[in-house]
């Protein structure tokens, strides 16, 4: 058999026995994972420019199909994507909140240290605009400011008491 007839025979065999060839291929890849990874790395480094150029060309030619695929994927996996986004936002929020506590302290002046009850107080009373953009953006602004004179960690009770007392001051009546 010459090389061309051997290739034709192998192609016919793969076409007529897809399950066996897939199983055999998976078994081989599982047993030679590190070798294949090393080979792919060397191949990529040798052919990087050509592969990158091909990838750019392919993406440019198939931009509409890729956009449609992405749209269909998002529609069919909306719960999964929503859960991933929610988890990412929650993780970001927790990280920023912990950084705030490390910068401004883990305790209110009254002694409360339960992190679920602690809030960020704007000492200069300029928090209204920050709250409109959302707590995470306000917290990031406080982190970047790194100004203990402008921000303070307070428990919710002390924070509300402070604001209530300042909003509802009863003028003293002279007798």
Q: What secondary-structure arrangement, pairings included, does this model have?
A:
Elements: H1 3-16, H2 18-31, H3 33-46, H4 48-61, H5 63-76, H6 78-104, E1 118-122, H7 128-133, H8 135-145, E2 151-155, H9 156-167
Antiparallel strand pairs: 1-2
Low-confidence stretches: none
Report the mean per-residue pLDDT as an integer.
Answer: 86
Radius of gyration: 31 Å
> Treating each run of at least 4 consecutive H or I residues as one helix, how many helices?
9
Measured as a percent range, the helix fraction is over 70%
Large-scale geometry: elongated
Topology pattern, helix = H, strand = E: HHHHHHEHHEH
Can you list the strand order of the major beta sheet?
1-2
Taking the alpha carbons of the first and last residues, their distance comes to 119 Å
Structural class: mainly alpha
Biggest beta sheet attributes: 2 strands, antiparallel
Query: Strand fraction band?
Result: 5-15%
Number of strands: 2
Characterise the protein shown here.
- There is one protein chain.
- The mean pLDDT is 86.
- The longest helix has 27 residues, at 78-104.
- The protein has helices at 3-16, 18-31, 33-46, 48-61, 63-76, 78-104, 128-133, 135-145, 156-167; strands at residues 118-122, 151-155.
- The radius of gyration is 31 Å and the shape is elongated.
- The protein is built from 9 helices and 2 strands.
- The protein has 175 residues and is mainly alpha-helical.
- A two-stranded antiparallel ribbon has the order 1-2.
- The protein has a domain at 81-167.
